[in-house]
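Sample log: Protein kinase domain-containing protein.
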Amino acid sequence: MWTSQNQWVSLKIMTAKSAMSRELQHLKHLERHSHGGLSSNYIVQLLDSFTHEGPNGIHQCLVFELLGPSVDQVLADYHEGHDKLGAETIIRMSTQLLKAVSFIHGTGMCHGDISGRNIAFSCTNLLHVTEDQLFESLGVPEVEALFRLDGAPLENGLPNQLVKAAEWFEWIDEDDEDMRLLDFGESFHRGEEPEKLAQPGTLQVPQTIFTNFFDYRIDLWRTGCMIYAFLFTAYPFWYLGENEVLVLQMIGFVERLPLEWEPEWKSMQTRSNHDLRVEGKQVDGTMRIKFAEAECDPILNPLLPVTQGLMRFLPSCRITADEALNML
């Protein structure tokens, strides 16, 4: 509970080595460009920040607005139940994510790690409830003591107990709450791209596989993947540790590989232990077929050209977030 405002909040405690938080710097940068607050641009609202000195050093602590479950968790629940989000909810989620990306890019930044685990729902319905009411939705915290199997005392710096992460089993407000893009630890300014980029396998951006160059337009590919996931409750590609198989899926799903990437692709095929062939009828067609088979509500029809425009192999060919918004 954030006592100064008498409301529940989300608290993020950084590791001690991250005391000078890049994420805080990036959020402050976005705040300076936001006239209506970060939440008005569907970015998680930073309420406060402070440092805490513990046995491992000084921790940067970030106080955010209360957040509900991640998009990944909600989509997994729908997928497990063989169900789908409502058409209006999908359009609203897609629009809000695109507005968040448009705002970030407009400030000269790139988020760098757009994924379902870094997008959550707001949680306005529970801001001012009692502790008992909060636990009715969130579940009572499960706490277990931490101990060594050999009975020796714990090393300095280790906690005495562990608390299980919240799972939001009773949360059903995705139709009423807004999106929040969070976790700006991998973000960077244009012209200050890092040497490496942390990416989950299923969401790897193709130019990071075929070239040594990437920029803010990685966000556009990842946003396209997320819009697809909103619609189908699953990501467009699966990944089992081999880029060759991932690229094969991309070629069959998105479009033909750029000519300048063909030499590297042939080298990858030579090194692979898999039969890497794409049937001609699949190239540049699977995405259209997938959308057609979904028998979508007419309100969802714009999502195909939007997703196709965002998920182009060459960054220069991808539509911007603003262009995607105009199509919706």
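Observation: Strands lie at 9-13, 46-54, 57-65, 67-70, 109-110, 119-122, 143-145, 161-163, 179-181, 188-189.
Observation: The first strand starts at residue 9 and ends at 13.
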